[in-house]
Design goal:
The chain contains 14 helices and four strands. The chain is mainly α. A two-stranded antiparallel sheet has the order 1-2. It has a two-stranded antiparallel ribbon with strand order 3-4. The N and C termini lie far apart (56 Å). The protein has two domains: 143 residues, Cytochrome Bc1 Complex, Chain D, domain 2 (Orthogonal Bundle); 133 residues, Orthogonal Bundle (Cytochrome Bc1 Complex, Chain D, domain 2), CATH 1.10.760. The longest helix is centred in the first third of the chain and has 20 residues. α2 packs antiparallel against α6. The chain is 36% helix and 2% strand. Bound molecules: heme C (HEC) (2 copies).
């Protein structure tokens, strides 16, 4: 009896020991699901395999104000879920020290299919993208080493980095890979348009007529399923003398790229207003007015819009009805993208103040 007891004590001691020092369970793999009929993503998941722990870490980082100098500007301060991760109702976004960004924050979704990022394509890999806003003096205005030290001082982060990457090392690469993992899961493919394409729903008459006009006049650049062909084009927006933004030419230095900007996706477009690279169009009507009347043709203006796009008021109404079918309310409200710990709270309403989410 004594021997059995001793053995049991020894055994439980051994098990206890194992649970403290034994090999850590590997992170749980997550499969990236490509929506039916979509092309293969361009992001190389082999270099950064998705895991439950990596995504959870990325989500915490995305909502953490400590990535900015004064603690106020999390990624989510400018990229708000209810606005498809664009900045709701602002032509440009607010950044550190009452500054303003020089461009309109684009929505964040379907990033796995993008080959380069920003309105001018100045960033060619999702994993390096977060370094731009963190260090930009008009955005988060922080130094990467300071951010890493803030994370290292927080035991919750030490635990989460360890769970995601196998040990407690916290470095830039791991931080940006985790942010990418979270952002890559932001797939928007569940709008009414998608349901109609899958044969589960049908357009009403204005939506169907709008879809037909869209296919004739817009689809060459705003190509489904992403609603962008990922090219850079000059659509004849007059140059704002204050911003003097030359677009793609800033990156390639080629005069033929002057005033070209990335074709934005039109998914969730109703919520990502204002529109255009500098947010100059406050509503969809302003964008349609631009295409039918406001185009300023220059040497790099795209042939498809150079002579304006003829649109009657009637057609505009139908196009607008079609645009509404691109809203993916499942994506906009999905609790997996909400701030960590807020899963069961009422989602923020448009216009409600952001700082509710900041720690
Ligand atoms: C102060 C506002 C602000 C903050 C904070 C901010 N962003 Fe942005 N984000 C922008 C703006 C503005 C752009 C467009 C910039 C451009 O095109 O020059 C952008 C662009 C992007 C893009 C490119 C999207 C595309 O389709 O090309 C990604 C990805 C992104 N941000 C992720 C992040 C992440 C991750 C963070 C936090 C580390 C972050 N942003 C913090 C304003 C912000
Ligand atoms: C030649 C390619 C091209 C064609 C054709 C075209 N667009 Fe665009 N569209 C763009 C580009 C590029 C931008 C961004 C322009 C900028 O900000 O400099 C844009 C911006 C937009 C925006 C603003 C989106 C946002 O998030 O800022 C809307 C809405 C839009 N287009 C709708 C349409 C509709 C509707 C049609 C058809 C009537 C159309 N476009 C035809 C290339 C095109």
């Amino acid at each position: 009896m004594v021997t059995i007891c001793c053995l049991m004590v020894l055994l439980s001691g051994y098990l206890l020991c194992l649970s403290f020092t034994g090999p850590k369970a590997p992170a749980t793999p997550v499969t990236f699901v490509v929506p039916a009929g979509w092309p293969q993503p361009l992001y190389d998941f082999k270099q950064n395999p998705l895991t439950t722990q990596g995504i959870a870490l990325g989500r915490k980082l995305f909502y953490d104000g400590r990535l900015s100098k004064d603690g106020n500007f999390a990624c989510a301060a400018c990229h708000q879920q209810f606005a498809a991760f664009a900045t709701y109702d602002h032509n440009v976004s607010h950044g550190f020290n009452n500054s303003f960004t020089r461009r309109n924050a684009p929505g964040l979704f379907n990033l796995a299919w993008q080959k380069d990022f920003m309105w001018d394509g100045g960033i060619n890999h999702l994993d390096v993208q977060p370094l731009a806003p963190i260090t930009d003096t008009l955005e988060m205005a922080e130094n990467i080493d300071t951010v890493l030290n803030k994370l290292r001082a927080d035991t919750a982060y030490v635990r989460m980095f360890s769970a995601a990457f196998g040990d407690e090392k916290i470095n830039t690469l791991r931080m940006t890979k985790a942010l990418s993992q979270f952002m890559l899961t932001m797939v928007s493919a569940n709008s009414k348009y998608d349901r109609v394409m899958r044969g589960e729903d049908s357009f009403n008459l204005p939506q169907r007529l709008g879809y037909e006009i869209f296919q004739k006049k817009c689809v060459a650049c705003h190509a489904p399923p992403l609603f962008t062909d990922l090219t850079y084009r000059n659509t004849g927006l007059s140059v704002d003398p204050y911003l003097n933004d030359m677009g793609r030419m800033r990156i390639t230095r080629k005069p033929e790229d002057s005033l070209k900007f990335k074709v934005p996706s039109l998914r969730n477009v109703v919520l990502t207003f204002p529109y255009g690279h500098d947010g100059r169009f406050y509503n969809l009507m302003d964008v349609f007015e631009h295409y039918r009347g406001g185009v300023v043709a220059g040497s790099t203006t795209d042939a498809l819009v150079k002579n304006k796009i003829p649109l009657s008021n009637f057609e505009i109404g139908q196009l607008k009805a079609f645009m509404y079918t691109l809203t993916d309310s499942v994506f906009l409200k999905d609790p997996v993208f909400s701030p960590p710990g807020y899963e069961n709270r009422t989602p923020l309403a448009p216009g409600e103040h952001l700082h509710r989410y900041q720690y």
